[in-house]
């Protein structure tokens, strides 16, 4: 299935769930890939991607880390007891 057939929300979840994103991704790295990246880019304009990220954050599926220069987006980590 091509990424264009998935909603932007699903594309974001796929990108953040990829092994390359184990430490999260910067906003721009959701659609801008490096030559060595194997995951699919999120297809959409910046506003649509940001809106989808906001929805995912509100739903508790994505969290942010703003401790550095740029915000990092990552899948919400479940507590160990909830993953059973």
Task: Characterize the structure shown.
- The protein contains two helices and three strands.
- The mean pLDDT is 89.
- The longest helix is centred in the middle third of the chain and has 13 residues, at 46-58.
- The protein is 27% helix and 12% strand.
- It has helices spanning 8-17, 46-58; strands spanning 25-26, 62-65, 72-75.
- It has a three-stranded antiparallel sheet with strand order 1-3-2.
- It is an alpha+beta fold and 84 residues long.
- The relative contact order is 0.21.
- The chain has a single domain, classed as Winged helix-like DNA-binding domain superfamily/Winged helix DNA-binding domain (Arc Repressor Mutant, subunit A, Orthogonal Bundle).
- It is globular and about 30 Å long.
Quick synopsis:
Helices cover 27% and strands 12% of the residues.
N-end to C-end Cα span? 30 Å
Percentage of helical residues? 25-40%
CATH superfamily (homologous) name = Winged helix-like DNA-binding domain superfamily/Winged helix DNA-binding domain
Strand content: 5-15%
Calculate Rg over CA atoms. Answer: 13 Å
Order of helices and strands: HEHEE
Q: Ranges with pLDDT <50 over ≥5 residues?
A: none
Give the tally of structural domains. 1
- The number of helical segments is 2
Shape: globular
Largest sheet strand order = 1-3-2
User: How would a crystallographer describe the biggest sheet?
Assistant: 3 strands, antiparallel
Number-wise, the strands total: 3
The CATH architecture is: Orthogonal Bundle
CATH class: Mainly Alpha
CATH topology grouping: Arc Repressor Mutant, subunit A
> What is the averaged pLDDT score?
89
Alpha-beta classification = alpha+beta
């Amino acid at each position: 299935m091509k990424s264009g057939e998935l909603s932007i929300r699903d594309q974001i979840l796929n990108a953040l769930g990829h092994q390359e994103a184990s430490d999260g991704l910067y906003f721009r790295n959701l659609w801008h890939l490096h030559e060595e990246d194997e995951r699919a880019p999120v297809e959409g304009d910046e506003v649509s991607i940001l809106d989808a990220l906001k929805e995912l954050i509100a739903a508790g599926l994505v969290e942010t880390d703003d401790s550095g220069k740029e915000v990092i987006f990552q899948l919400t980590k479940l507590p160990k007891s909830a993953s059973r």
